[in-house]
């Protein structure tokens, strides 16, 4: 994995976690809203797992935010 890809994934993970916490949602509760396991959400939020565009759209719809709010500045 390239350095830019790693940076992108880590920034996305941090932003996602911050948005989830700002909404007062725990990992287990938010994972249920996404219909994924808590361990999958944990891997996404730690930057260990790639997120598909479809999953990113679902995450943003549940967090009521725009995809651009989770992405790193370029």
TrEMBL record:
Question: Is Transport there in the keyword field?
Answer: no
Q: Which GO terms describe its molecular function?
A: DNA binding; DNA-binding transcription factor activity
What's a Pfam family this protein contains?
Answer: HTH_3
Asked if Cell membrane is a keyword of the record, the answer is no
Q: Which GO terms describe its cellular component?
A: cytosol
Residue runs in coiled coils: none
Q: Which UniProt keywords apply?
A: DNA-binding
InterPro entries registered for this protein in UniProt: Cro/C1-type_HTH (IPR001387), Lambda_DNA-bd_dom_sf (IPR010982), TransReg_Diox_bact_type (IPR050807)
Q: Which residues form the HTH cro/C1-type domain?
A: 16-70
Its domain of life? Bacteria
From the Swiss-Prot or TrEMBL record, give the protein name.
Putative transcriptional regulator
Q: Which organism is it from?
A: Microbulbifer rhizosphaerae
């Amino acid at each position: 994995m390239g350095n830019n890809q790693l940076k992108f994934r880590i920034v996305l993970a941090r932003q996602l976690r911050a948005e989830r916490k700002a909404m007062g949602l725990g990992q287990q509760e938010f994972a249920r809203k996404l219909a994924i396991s808590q361990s999958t959400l944990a891997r996404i939020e730690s930057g260990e797992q790639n997120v598909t565009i479809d999953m990113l759209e679902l995450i943003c719809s549940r967090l009521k935010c725009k995809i651009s709010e989770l992405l790193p500045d370029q």
